[in-house]
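Field log, afternoon session.

UNIT: design team B
ACTIVITY: writing a sequence onto a fixed backbone
BACKBONE:
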């Protein structure tokens, strides 16, 4: 009898202690987040990943974006970081973002020129193809890259070739025979970044040999190449070609921008200067799709500027949003998207100094 009373008393004491902890946890989280949560909801909320976009690309018609988001997933012992690819509609706000290959740690993404397919590189070296019109369908694993993992990819205009940068090696994959009979060939090594001409006949890349770096033009058909810049000690991290193939813009890790303009009379690329464009200040560059307009940042990425390259003047300066800019991509001829280190994503119009829309993920 005494033992039963002791057991009941212990259970009651433990139950009261547990109840007190639950009450305190509920009060604490209610004050912290401004809403009422029971402990189970708090635990579930803590397990949801915190997302930060590191790269975004827009489908050709500007109706949606695919972002690579860094997700910090809390575990009992540590916070684990993985990269997830997410498709988000810009037409219907009621359409929730959709994960593409949620189980894959995505390193880069490239789009089919028609916008129907997305090619995704993963941290284990695999390359996948996903049908954007049927996200729920299992993706096709096209094969494995020959190095560590892809860091940049681009699809040719005729949709027959996939350019893959992996372990500083730029290669061409034959999409006609892939994946039944995988075939690829190496274009160049010691590459940090690349861009492809609109007709996919020329590849431009930043190549470093020893302590010297050049921007190289490479003819894909005959394999001939030529340097476009004098040697430099700074490696480009981003290289872009304008849609009209008249300008090349390169961005190095120190924030410096290299601009080149093509001279059709001499068939040469010449250095091109913009007044008031200070060196070592930009964190991103982006070309407009149908005009010679370049987006850069200034003041340690806190200021956003649109340049008219043909006129060599500032077209528009934009009011900043919270956080430093991490990247930018154009949605249409006049609208573009930016994302920041605070996790904000805003849509801008070249004719307006303030954002026209905020995207929530």
């Amino acid at each position: 009898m005494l033992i039963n009373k002791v057991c009941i008393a212990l259970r009651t004491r433990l139950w009261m202690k547990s109840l007190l902890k639950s009450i305190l946890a509920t009060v604490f989280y209610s004050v912290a987040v401004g809403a009422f949560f029971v402990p189970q909801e708090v635990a579930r909320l803590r397990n949801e990943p915190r997302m930060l976009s590191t790269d975004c690309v827009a489908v050709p018609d500007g109706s949606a974006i695919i972002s690579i988001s860094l997700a910090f997933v809390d575990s009992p012992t540590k916070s684990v970081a993985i990269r997830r690819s997410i498709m988000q509609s810009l037409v219907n706000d009621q359409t929730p973002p959709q994960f593409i290959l949620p189980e894959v740690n995505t390193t880069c993404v490239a789009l089919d020129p028609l916008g129907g397919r997305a090619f995704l590189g993963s941290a284990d070296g695999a390359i996948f193809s996903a049908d954007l019109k049927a996200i729920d369908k299992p993706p096709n694993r096209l094969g494995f890259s020959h190095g560590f993992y892809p860091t940049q990819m681009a699809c040719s205009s005729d949709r027959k070739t996939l350019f893959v940068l992996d372990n500083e090696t730029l290669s061409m994959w034959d999409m006609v025979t892939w994946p039944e009979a995988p075939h690829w060939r190496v274009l160049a090594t010691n590459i940090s970044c690349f861009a492809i001409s609109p007709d996919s006949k020329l590849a431009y890349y930043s190549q470093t040999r020893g302590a010297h770096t050049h921007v190289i033009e490479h003819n894909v058909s005959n394999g001939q190449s030529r340097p476009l810049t004098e040697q430099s000690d700074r490696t480009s991290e981003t290289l872009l070609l304008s849609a009209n193939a008249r300008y090349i813009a390169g961005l190095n890790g120190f924030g410096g921008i290299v601009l080149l303009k093509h001279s059709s009379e001499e068939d040469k690329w010449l250095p091109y200067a913009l007044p008031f464009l200070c060196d070592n200040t930009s964190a991103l560059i982006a070309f407009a799709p149908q005009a010679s307009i370049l987006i850069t940042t200034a003041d340690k990425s806190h200021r956003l500027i649109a340049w008219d390259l043909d006129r060599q003047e500032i077209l528009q300066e934009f009011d900043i949003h919270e956080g430093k800019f991490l990247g930018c991509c154009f949605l249409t001829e006049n609208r573009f998207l930016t994302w920041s280190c605070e996790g904000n994503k805003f849509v801008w119009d070249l004719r307006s100094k303030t954002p026209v829309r905020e995207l929530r993920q």
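LOG NOTE: Confidence is low (pLDDT under 50) at residues 1-19, 25-48.
NEXT ACTIVITY: expression trials, pending approval
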